[in-house]
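User: Could you go from structure to sequence for me? I need the amino acid at each position, not a summary. Structure tokens:
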């Protein structure tokens, strides 16, 4: 089984910073992409950031210039450094990864359970 576990969420004041982590474990031959999505009540799930195996990165428009995604390939861990946080950033943040579980398997899409980020005074 492939497992993604997020950590680092919590309560922070506007303008503050937070760093999220996501560790992929289990049956993993390779990972071609890892990233973060978020969803808040009344809104659709949206892309926050993703990083591909070739190191190309995409950010959602709402977080450009404030968030930074990085990856430790040896540990199958992706990070999201969030700076200048706004109340609008309040959401459940999900880790996502494209994982090849075995040599004979195709890549599949896997999700973590999410970690809550709340930005409030």
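Assistant: Here is the amino acid at each position, in order:
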């Amino acid at each position: 089984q492939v497992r993604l576990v997020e950590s680092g969420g919590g309560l922070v004041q506007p303008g503050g910073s937070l760093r999220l982590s996501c560790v992929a474990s289990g049956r993993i031959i390779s990972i071609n992409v890892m990233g973060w999505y978020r969803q808040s009540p009344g809104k659709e799930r949206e892309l926050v950031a993703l990083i591909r195996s070739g190191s190309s990165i995409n950010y959602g428009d709402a977080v450009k210039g404030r968030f930074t995604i990085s990856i430790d390939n040896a540990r199958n861990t992706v990070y999201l450094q969030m700076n200048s946080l706004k109340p609008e950033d309040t959401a459940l943040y999900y880790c996502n990864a494209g994982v090849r579980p075995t040599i004979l398997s195709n890549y599949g899409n896997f999700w973590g359970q999410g970690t809550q980020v709340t930005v409030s005074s």
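One structural detail worth keeping in mind: The longest strand covers residues 30-39.
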